[in-house]
Amino acid sequence: MILIYSPASSARLQYILDVIFQDFLGISYSFTSDAGKFNFHAGPKINYSEQAFGNELFIYSTRLLFEKGIRDQQISVIDWQDTKAFFATHPKYIIPFDLFAASFYLLTRYEEYLPHRRDVHGRFDVRDSLAFQKGFLNKPVVDLYVLQLKEIISDMYPALEFPERKFRFLSTIDIDNAWAYKEKGLLRTSGAFLRSLVHLEFQEFAERLLVLLGYKKDPFDTYDELHALQQAYGFKSIYFFLLGDYGENDKNVSTSRKKFQSLINSIADYNAVGIHPSYASNTLTSRIKLEQSRLHKIIKSNVTRSRQHFLKLEFPTTYRNLIECDITDDYTMGYAAEPGFRAGTCNTYRYFDLVYDCMAPLKIHPFVVMDATLNLYKKISPSEVMSFVGPLLKEVKRVNGTFCILWHNESISDKKPWEGWKDVYEEIIKAVYSKN
Questions:
Q1: d(CA 260, CA 48)
Q2: 5-19, 160-174, 194-208, 285-299: least confident range
Q3: What is the pLDDT of residue 202?
Q4: Among 31, 142, 184, 289, which lies 20 to 30 A Cα-Cα from 200?
Q5: How far apart are the C-alpha atoms of 12 and 94, rounded to whole Å?
């Protein structure tokens, strides 16, 4: 048990203390606004205020965690190495920045509540993020803060024991399009054949015909390969199925198709599954509920996991809609255009609604890298992938965090635009389980 002092309390402060101490460090704490009680306390303690009392662990408090509303914040960024040098040269345990407020700002995605640019899909533009602009998007800085805090506390109070956090790997698979050619219906299939002829795409015309006649396997039917890798390396995945109505950006197979239902059930027998709310559902709770009910009817089980199609995430609307639909776990937290740590962490954490100024019943599971980011956005060749993914994996292992990746069934198909990418998924998995 560690005692934390601050002259005032707030929902924001309570939230970040719960996340850092209970969730990330795995220890209990108590809070006091009584300076006398704090000073007489003989055990582990932290002073979070504007004035140090004496030889205690002191974190200087800014006003962010005691404010109401949302406003532009004046933020300066300290180089992590400079911070470590500060610790090394100060005999008193003084942390030279507001670690709690910085963590809160990143985890709540405070900057995404402020006016910002949007990309072509209406998403927060990564170029507007503080992490991208200051060059620390590739660092799980909140986890590094917590690790440094743990080391300082352990140095001051060696009798205080922390549970060991272990590195985890989490594979998540989005099924935007269950098959490239199969189960599309007569109208869509006829249109596709005609389109291939008009654009002189004879190879695709022939491949589609061979698949539909049963002479060739559908290129997006990579489920046996995915399952075999799970068996070989001993992990399970979470699969997210797009179950929305057909539209310009929602082109999966209809849920009325028996073979699609059978596929979902076969995957759900061995893995967790969730909904992949359609592009059209982002502002409509009714659509999410409809798609959720479709998956529920297929797997005969409650649906509590979700990841937004196209990673369409708008604060606080998206998360409020999911909560209204009794979704308890969301896996959308990451950027489409850049790999890295959108919320400054690689670990699961609780959602805080800045408008309502309260914690909400939703867990956020950030992912670190997506296949489409590497191939379609950054135009990285398969041979270069590990030069990007390797350092990110190293950062996650450094903090004993969760290395969550977002992959698609089609990206191991070798079908355009995924030529040469078939083995990349396994290459990453090998690195995950490597002792190096």
A1: 55
A2: 194-208
A3: 77
A4: 184
A5: 22
Average pLDDT, the chain: 92
> How confident is the model at residue 193, as a pLDDT?
73
Q: Which sign, positive or negative, has the C-alpha torsion 80, 86, 88, 94? A: negative
Instruction: Give the Cα separation of 219 and 210 in Å (integer).
Output: 11
**Residue 23 DSSP symbol:** I
Domains of the chain: 2-156 (no CATH), 168-180+218-432 (3.20.20.370)
Distance, in Å, from the CA atom of 197 to the CA atom of 206, rounded to the nearest integer, reads 10
Residue 344 and residue 308 in contact, taking contact as beta carbons nearer than 8 Å: no
Q: What is the pLDDT of residues 385-420, one digit of tens each?
A: 999 999 999 999 999 999 999 999 999 998 999 999
Residue 209 has what pLDDT? 82
* Distance in angstroms (rounded) separating the CA atoms of residues 179 and 416: 14
Cβ 307 vs Cβ 276: under 8 Å: yes
Helix (H) or strand (E) holding 85: helix 80-89
d(CA 94, CA 55): 9
Cβ atoms within 10 Å, residue 259: 12
Note the pLDDT of residue 85. Answer: 61
Asked if residues 339 and 369 have their Cβ atoms less than 8 Å apart, the reply is: yes
Give the C-alpha separation, 418 to 93, whole Å.
Answer: 52
- What is the pLDDT at residue 371? 97
Backbone angles phi and psi of 340, in degrees to 5:
130, -155
User: Which pair of tokens denotes residue 139?
Assistant: 């660092």
CA 316, 319, 323: angle at the middle one, nearest 5? 130
- Predicted confidence at residue 300, as pLDDT, reads 95
Q: What residues contact 287, with CB distance under 8 A and at least 6 apart?
A: 244, 277, 278, 280, 281
Is residue 344 within 8 A of residue 107, CB to CB? The reply is: yes
Q: Is the pLDDT of residue 194 over 70?
A: yes
Closest CA to 414 of 225, 249, 254: 225
User: In angstroms, how far is the first alpha carbon of the chain from the final one?
Assistant: 35
Phi-psi sector, 252: left (phi>0), alpha (psi -120 to 50), beta: beta
CA distance 62 to 50: 8
- Over the stretch 297-313, which tens digit does the pLDDT of each residue have? 999 999 999 999 999 99
Nearest to 2 by CA among 41, 35, 53, 39: 41
